[in-house]
Specification:
Peroxisomal Thiolase, Chain A, domain 1, 10 helices, single chain, alpha+beta, 10-stranded mixed beta sheet, 3-oxoacyl-[acyl-carrier-protein] synthase-3, ACP_syn_III_N, 30% helix, two-stranded antiparallel sheet, 3-oxoacyl-[acyl-carrier-protein] synthase activity, acyltransferase
Length: 345
């Protein structure tokens, strides 16, 4: 696989992992009432087959609110240790303010004093894995001993319910939520061992994710149209082809770094854009459905929250037990970044 970077040899531990979903649980029928004829036709495309449910952030419910709620869940596991992390790494799918990420505001709300707050904008759906890579690198360099990892999205309840967007086929796919993890450098700390992290940068695809609005304008310019992510038939085909290739590549690379082939992986946890990707990814690793847990039908596409939320959920309900080699994998945007990690539970 080209352009793959393997993280340094430090072995961090995930000592706490929690997630939070907004209370508003929205059925697919909400979107069906607004769908026009074109939208109903496109939902037959596997790219746009909607989940049964998704959760929407309430009006005014910010990414910071969601992240703080996830941290509250995390504190139920690790107590105030969650508030004592040396560094805070955060990613929000839809930043609440232009330019400014969420990390600093979360730290202000929590009343903590980390030495560094870093917002990870370009990690996309693979942001949690990119954070593991960065935390591992910092631990190896000796610049930090613990890191609080935060992901959130509130785009579903804000962007995809706009009256000129909610009729589009892609509107029914996203969901909102947040996740929080505490990662430490102490090899005696227990928890989940981060055995390997691999990252693959494909910047040749970086310009392929675009926003759409009619009439056309820059996102910061005033106008009548409502901004959303646009899809064309050509773009859908490209993203499907790339996604089908990129996630298995990083997943298999992470497994191979631990001496495993695809079928030897205990469980695979990925981001979850649609059911077609989920099926193709587990088929590529020769895994049965029960070893590839997902939360798509309850949560839809959670973007960067998908991997940590599904991992936390599958561990909490017993689908993933102790002593397993679990591979986490995801790709971002239109394929400009992908990452995988091998975790020993």
């Amino acid at each position: 696989m080209d352009d793959v970077v393997t993280a340094p040899a430090a072995t961090p531990r995930i000592v706490g992992l929690a997630s939070h979903l907004p209370e508003n649980r929205v059925p697919a029928a909400y979107f069906r009432q607004f769908a026009d004829a074109d939208s109903r036709t496109l939902t037959s495309n596997p790219m746009f087959a909607p989940p049964a449910y998704r959760h929407h952030a309430a009006a005014g419910e910010s990414n910071v609110d969601l992240m703080c709620a996830a941290v509250d869940r995390l504190r139920e596991q690790v107590g105030d240790e969650a508030l004592q992390a040396d560094v805070v790494l955060s990613h929000s799918q839809l930043p609440d303010l232009p330019v400014v990420g969420c990390g600093g505001d979360v730290v202000r709300r929590l009343g903590t004093r980390p030495s560094l707050v870093l917002d990870i904008h370009n990690g996309g759906c693979a942001a949690f894995l990119l954070m593991l890579h960065l935390a591992r690198t910092m631990f190896t360099a000796g610049t930090a001993r613990s890191a609080l990892l935060l992901t959130a999205t509130n785009a579903a309840g804000n962007v995809f319910t706009q009256d000129r967007v909610r009729n589009l086929p892609q509107a029914a796919i996203p969901g909102d939520g947040a996740a929080a993890a505490l990662v430490v450098a102490d090899p005696q700390a227990g928890g989940l061992e981060v055995r390997e992290v691999v990252c693959a940068q494909h910047s040749e695809y970086a310009g392929d994710m675009t926003a759409a609005v009619e009439p056309p304008r820059k996102y910061w310019e005033a106008g009548e149209g409502q901004l959303h992510v646009g899809f064309t038939e050509a773009k859908i085909a490209k993203v499907l082809a790339r996604g089908n290739r990129l996630v298995p590549e990083v997943a298999l690379a992470a497994a191979a770094a631990g001496g495993l082939r695809g079928p030897e992986v205990g469980h695979l946890v990925t981001n979850q854009p649609n059911r077609t990707f989920l099926r193709n990814w587990r088929d590529a690793l020769e895994l049965p459905p029960e070893r590839h847990p997902d939360t798509f039908d309850e949560c839809g596409n959670l973007f960067a929250v998908g991997v940590p939320h599904t991992f936390a959920t599958a561990r909490a309900d017993g689908r993933i037990g102790s002593g397993e080699d679990v591979v986490l994998a995801a790709f971002a945007h239109a394929g400009d970044f992908a990452a995988g990690a091998l975790i020993r539970t």
